[in-house]
Amino acid sequence: MQLRAFGRTGMQLSVLGFGCGAVGGLMVRGDAAEQERTIAWAIAAGVNYFDTAVLYGNGQSERNLGRVLQKLKPANVAVGTKVRLLPSEFSRIADAVAMSLEGSLARLRLDRVDIFHLHNPITETGGGLALSVQQVLGEVVPAFERLRQHGKTRFLGITAVGDTATLHQVIDSRAFDSAQVVYNVLNPSAAEELPTNYPAQDYGRLFDHAKAAGVGVVGIRVLAGGALSGSAERHPIAGPAPEPIGSAMSYDADVDRARRLIPLVKEGIVTSLTEAATRFALSHPAMCTILVGIATRQQFEDALAAVQKGPLPRAALDRLSALRQAFSGEPR
């Protein structure tokens, strides 16, 4: 398994991480023995980053990951979790952040995590579940730093969703060490300019900001919540079709556009759309580790097989770009 430097942290993370989210569902609703077998197999294959959150199954993902890791006792694996603040907690951010991490550590059976991510959207003025840039830099960052000083986390991170300009500002501040960034074949704007009138959020080459600030990048929504399988069918333990992030306004629209990339398979460039999506995410040097939601061990084995083939070659990236041009001008 290839390892890549994770920003300025000094960590070397496997290019394929282990996503423990609710969308795939294995670590939330899966069989306990299958969870253990899959994690043991992933570790043996060289995976060394495990990503979870209290939001995933109301703590169930953290409990299951903690149980398995305590039993396996692997050496040199990194664990990241997240806090999602509710609007009712915005008046007491420091206490809510500390309480959330203490709960996560108890469920994970750990004394500290390697990365603690803010899971709220970030916008200029806030509103709803979103935090304002002032709240993030003025209140969340000091609260996170205190937890780091107390040995509860090694590094600080954000899930980079919200307003593009605000995300740039937060990353440019260098207050965070990690950013979980939406990046997939339907929306490559974290790395490159989008075509005119392209139906997706423009993240404005966010990778450039992360690189300049020494922020490590975790790739999320690599399969667009499963839409990049090209099928609307979902595994019995997978979560319901998720709300898209950064791409179309509906899951069905993402599935439709994914199916329009089938020429990559028919022309023999890749064996499946999921292979194309997985290898695409690794093709940019700013990407450190990618997360793929899974319901079964076979899905993880498929992701690993794709990763082992390496990034897509230039000709494949050019073909993909040409196919995407047809999306321009369509409603998001």
How would you characterize this protein structure?
- This protein is of the alpha/beta class and 332 residues long.
- It has one domain: Alpha-Beta Barrel (TIM Barrel), CATH 3.20.20.
- It contains twelve helices and twelve strands.
- The chain has helices at residues 26-29, 32-44, 60-72, 93-108, 133-149, 164-172, 206-213, 251-259, 263-266, 273-282, 297-308, 314-324; strands spanning 3-5, 12-14, 18-19, 49-51, 78-83, 113-118, 122-123, 131-132, 153-159, 178-182, 216-220, 289-290.
- The strands form three sheets. The protein has an eight-stranded parallel β-sheet.
- The protein is globular.
Mean of the pLDDT scores? 96
Remind me, CATH topology?
A: TIM Barrel
How many domain regions? 1
Number of helices: 12
Known CATH architecture: Alpha-Beta Barrel
CATH superfamily: NADP-dependent oxidoreductase domain
DSSP E strands, number: 12
Q: Topology as H/E string?
A: EEEHHEHEHEEEHEHEHEHHHEHH
How does the overall form come out from the CA principal axes? globular
Distance between the termini: 37 Å
CATH class: Alpha Beta
Topology (SSEs and partners):
Layout: E1 3-5, E2 12-14, E3 18-19, H1 26-29, H2 32-44, E4 49-51, H3 60-72, E5 78-83, H4 93-108, E6 113-118, E7 122-123, E8 131-132, H5 133-149, E9 153-159, H6 164-172, E10 178-182, H7 206-213, E11 216-220, H8 251-259, H9 263-266, H10 273-282, E12 289-290, H11 297-308, H12 314-324
Parallel strand pairs: 3-4, 4-5, 5-6, 6-9, 7-8, 9-10, 10-11, 11-12
Antiparallel strand pairs: 1-2
Helix pairs in contact: 2-3, 3-4, 4-5, 6-7, 10-11
